[in-house]
Design brief:
- It contains 27 helices and 31 strands.
- The protein is an alpha+beta fold.
- Among the domains are: 182 residues, tricorn interacting facor f3 domain (Immunoglobulin-like, Sandwich); 112 residues, Immunoglobulin-like; 133 residues, Zincin-like fold (Alpha Horseshoe).
- It has an eight-stranded mixed β-sheet, with no helix packed on it. Strands 17-18-19-21-20 form a five-stranded mixed β-sheet, covered by helices on one side.
- A hairpin with a 2-residue loop joins strand 7 and strand 8.
- It binds tryptophan (TRP) and zinc ion (ZN).
- It is an enzyme of class 3 (hydrolase).
- Keywords: Aminopeptidase, Hydrolase, Metal-binding, Metalloprotease, Protease, Zinc.
Length: 897
């Protein structure tokens, strides 16, 4: 057993070569037994005419026990089995290869490959899990048709599912049974899936736009059947939307969603058999919040949309991951916007846009500022699982969105149509997608490649000049990468094509008609400038009075805009901008400036005072009945502590916390009567409805409650929260009430939350997803000097319901504390970092993918104040010394480099 195919440390995009062999068909037979499942894999293999000749066939395989090999049904002895796979020596040009092996699903805690969860079998093959099931050319450019036979004990595993269509089933001796599935579409191995166990389904039959009958199923454990309606509705809405917006129909006769409670990520788009984390399937009003309902709709949509963008057209190699993920995130964002009424209503559309941009800025901009910074199409990786990132997904979605901003919806649709016309059934690249967009729109998009190849967040500096005499207004844009991290700087080649949307607002608050120099007449009130040089000036003519610029409307590109607005100007934009996104943006800029000034004072031990202008501006938004409740909720929420700390020259989480709490208390106190009135006005009596309107009312009402919970005298908040907790008919209100009680407890040092906390546990003891919320609420609560949250977290790790092996549970307690409670996690004594190091190492031995996510929590350590920085380095070094997996090693080595 020599290691002839040792995996190199770093995989590079430049090293891509086509596979030496192709596999046309795969026939898999499973004898499913938890401790030893036998897999017999029969493949039709041939030499790839497009690749250099090699004598031997090298297949990937991991954690497999070899049983036997045959070529053309005759035993074949010239094989070498090693740690990373198998070498089949001296093979013919075309042959049938049969490999039989065994694996141990019961012992598989990595949740990659074939594993057991709650006594049922599941698979997860993306990105490289298939090689943990059987030996294969486990790379996305090897596409085959699959036939799958599942055999198992009938009583223990009554349901046997795989991709495609069920073609046979029946009983076998000894209480066993079988099912045979056939997937007519060629697919890469990462889209293979099987599920076996005691499951039940909600079923629905629909007709597609062209009149074909389809069977839809949502499979869950029997006690969860009452929580499947929303996922089914979301699936039906997704199917309808993809037909209407992109002309894309469901291609299989049957489409299945299966929920599993042990899962590394959100969900997986396996052909015809999507497997989901229960968190993104199960919902009823008692157990799921408005956010959960919206997330389920978005993730069901996302996985369904992959059927075309990912499955029918797949990736040539994993460097092209954003080809399917960026595009599919863009599609799910557009779907969610449409579902909330965004196609008819600009304000509803802006709400969704604000939520998406907030995630991008808080998470992706931070990624770009650290040691893991990488382009949307990375150049290299050590472990591909570490590259399912905010950059590939969220920035990738922005890069797709910009085609639509440049070409309009119709031009984008033409590009999509051409993409499927050219590449259906193939494994392709990001360049191929860009070529389809360029050719369909008769446009040269060569410069646009830089969006795929350059890391770092571009910065656009804006200066303006008004010429009173000539009535001309010039806007000069300059682009660079600001203070990009070294990892990002390496990739930078030159200026980007930035679609820069702009409007000009007159002194009366109305948009001015826009006429650029050289144009014969004014045309519209928002223009998308094509900004392609390092510096460029755009001149508007016929500008009657000095305007205020509304920059990067609707966040038309993933960049940082620097412009020297005065506080009064920001208040004016917050009150008047016709672009709802920029109204929100103005308020955030105003608050950020104020909060950062206060954080600097807090760090220096100086007294704090809030500018009255901010309180007035926020008060006007709160009472502006022309604004939707959901918009007001977003506009009145302060930027997060994490985002604020990242804006400081040296991150100081304690100072940010002090400043932000100070402003929250000031807003709570100064606007108390308005918050109380708002709370009352936005109640949603009657049966719960997860509609965007009702959710908006609840969001604004619960924001009011959270501001009231900051007051020195918390009596009102305690009274309202207690009543709301007891009377709630939905999880949104119950969880918000509990959160407000926890907050007042911390603020007053009292114990008003303990009764509700205990009640919450007993009420939902049998609902794991709700118990996750119970852990998370406690992990993210404000601490007090008497009781730091780390003590609560350590105590909760001993709770009988805590289980490190379940990713949702680990995330609810450990990740929530480390990533969503910055003031407590970054305690000056380093106790949070020591805890983090312990947990990363424990998880590393159980589930490297999950451990590597937690490991990323300290990657921005160099940007913190010196005292914290040294303690973080010590924790990183501790992990580096004890790490076992390639996943975590890549993260900590890059952080320390
Ligand atoms: N392709 C999945 C998604 O939509 C991502 C995914 C699910 C995944 N499970 C995974 C990626 C496990 C890596 C490992 O978006
Ligand atoms: Zn995806």
């Amino acid at each position: 057993m020599t290691d002839t195919a040792a995996t190199p440390n770093v995989i590079r995009r430049a090293d891509y070569a086509p596979p030496a062999f192709l596999i046309d068909t795969v026939d898999l037979e499973f004898d499913l037994v938890p401790e030893r499942t036998i897999v017999k894999n029969t493949m039709r293999v041939r030499r790839n005419p497009a690749a250099a000749h090699t004598r031997d066939l090298e297949l990937m395989g991991e954690q497999l026990e070899f049983v036997s090999a045959a070529i053309d049904a005759k035993p074949y002895a010239n094989v070498r089995v090693h740690d990373h796979g198998i070498t089949i020596e001296d093979v013919p040009d075309s042959f049938e290869l049969t490999l039989t092996g065994a694996c141990d699903p019961a012992a598989n805690t990595t949740l990659s490959g074939l594993y057991v969860s709650s006594g049922n079998f599941f698979t997860q093959c993306e990105a490289e899990g298939f090689r943990r099931i059987t030996w294969f050319l486990d790379r996305p450019d090897v596409m085959a048709t699959y036939t799958v036979t599942l055999r198992a004990d009938k009583a223990a595993y009554p349901v046997l599912l795989s991709n495609g269509n069920l073609i046979a089933e029946g009983d076998l001796p000894d209480g066993r049974h079988y099912a045979k599935w056939e997937d007519p579409f060629r697919k890469p191995s990462y889209l293979f899936a099987l599920v076996a166990g005691k499951l039940v389904a909600l079923e629905e039959r629909i007709k597609t736009g062209s009149g074909k009958d389809k069977l839809l199923q949502v499979w869950v454990e029997p006690h969860d059947l009452d929580k499947t309606r929303h996922a089914m509705d979301s699936l039906i809405h997704s199917i309808r939307w993809d037909e209407a917006r992109f002309g894309l129909e469901l291609d299989l006769d049957r489409f299945m969603i299966v929920a599993v409670s042990d899962f590394n990520m959100g969900a997986m788009e396996n052909k015809g058999l999507n497997i989901f984390n229960t968190k993104y399937v199960l919902a009823n009003p008692e157990t799921a919040t408005d956010t959960d309902f919206a997330n389920i709709e978005a993730v069901v949509g996302h996985e369904y949309f992959h059927n075309w963008t990912g499955n029918r057209v797949t990736c040539r190699d994993w460097f092209q991951l954003s080809l399917k993920e960026g595009l599919t995130v863009f599609r799910d964002q557009e779907f969610s916007a449409a579902m909330s009424g965004g196609d008819e209503n600009a304000a509803a559309r802006a709400t969704k846009r604000i939520e998406d941009v907030r995630v991008l800025r808080q998470m992706q901009f931070a990624e770009d500022a650290g040691p893991m910074a990488h382009p949307v199409r990375p150049e290299s990786y050590v472990e591909i699982n570490n590259f399912y990132t905010m950059t590939v997904y969220e920035k990738g979605a922005e890069v797709v969105r910009m085609y639509q901003t440049l070409f309009g919806r119709d031009g984008f649709r033409k590009g999509m149509d051409l993409y499927f016309q050219r590449y259906d059934g193939q494994a392709v690249t990001c360049d191929d997608f860009r070529a389809a967009m360029a050719d369909a729109n008769g446009c040269d998009l060569a410069q646009y490649e830089r969006w795929y190849s350059q890391a770092g967040t571009p910065r656009v500096r804006v200066t303006t000049r008004y010429d009173e005499a000539q009535k001309r207004y010039s806007v000069t844009l300059a682009q660079d990468y600001g203070n990009a991290s070294p990892a990002a700087r390496e990739t930078q080649m030159g200026p980007l094509l930035i679609p820069f949307a702009i409007g000009l607002i007159g002194p009366d608050g109305a948009d001015l008609p826009l006429r650029l120099e050289g144009e014969s007449a004014a045309n519209g009130t928002t223009r998308v400038l094509e900004f392609t040089e390092a510096q460029q000036t755009f001149t508007f003519v016929d500008v009657p009075a000095k305007p205020l610029p509304s920059l990067l409307r609707d966040f038309s590109a993933p960049v940082i805009v620097e412009y020297d607005y005065g506080d009064d100007e920001l208040a004016f934009l917050l009150a008047n901008d016709s672009d709802a996104f920029n109204r929100w943006e103005a308020g955030q800029r105003f608050a950020t400036r104020e909060l950062l000034a206060l954080a600097a004072r807090a760090a220096a031990g100086e007294p704090l005072e809030v500018d009255g202008g901010l309180v007035d501006a926020f008060g006007r938004v709160l009472n502006d009945e022309t604004l939707s409740p959901s918009f007001r909720e977003l506009a009145l929420m302060l930027p997060s502590e994490t985002y604020l700390a990242e804006q400081m020259a040296l991150s100081d989480p304690a100072a940010v916390h002090t400043a932000r709490q100070f402003v929250r208390k000031r807003l709570g106190t100064a606007l108390k009567a308005d918050w109380l009135a708002t709370f009352d006005k936005h109640r949603t009596p009657g049966a719960y409805e997860p509609t965007p309107e009702a959710a908006g009312h609840r969001a604004l009402k619960n924001l009011a409650l959270s501001y009231l919970s900051e007051l020195d005298d918390p009596a009102d908040a305690v009274r309202l929260a207690t009543a709301q907790y007891d009377a709630a008919n939905n999880m949104t209100d119950r969880a918000a009430a509990l959160s407000a009680l926890l907050n007042t407890s911390a603020a007053t040092g009292g114990d008003v939350a303990s009764r509700a906390l205990a009640d919450f546990y007993t009420r939902f003891e049998r609902e794991p997803l709700v118990i996750d919320k119970w852990f998370a609420l406690q992990a993210t609560q404000r601490g007090s000097a008497q009781r730091p949250v780390i003590e609560t977290v350590r105590a909760l790790m001993q709770h009988p319901a805590f289980n490190l092996k379940n990713p949702n549970r680990a995330r609810s307690l450990i990740f929530s504390f480390c990533a969503a409670n910055p003031a407590q996690f970054h305690a000056a004594d380093g106790s949070g970092y020591a805890f983090w190091a312990e947990q990363v190492l424990e998880l590393d031995a159980i589930n490297p993918q999950v451990a590597a996510r937690l490991a990323r929590n300290l990657e921005l350590w160099r940007r913190f104040t010196p005292q914290l920085r040294e303690r973080m380095r010590a924790a990183l070094e501790k992990v580096a010394a004890g790490v076992k997996s390639r996943d975590v090693r890549e993260i900590v080595e890059k952080a320390l480099a």
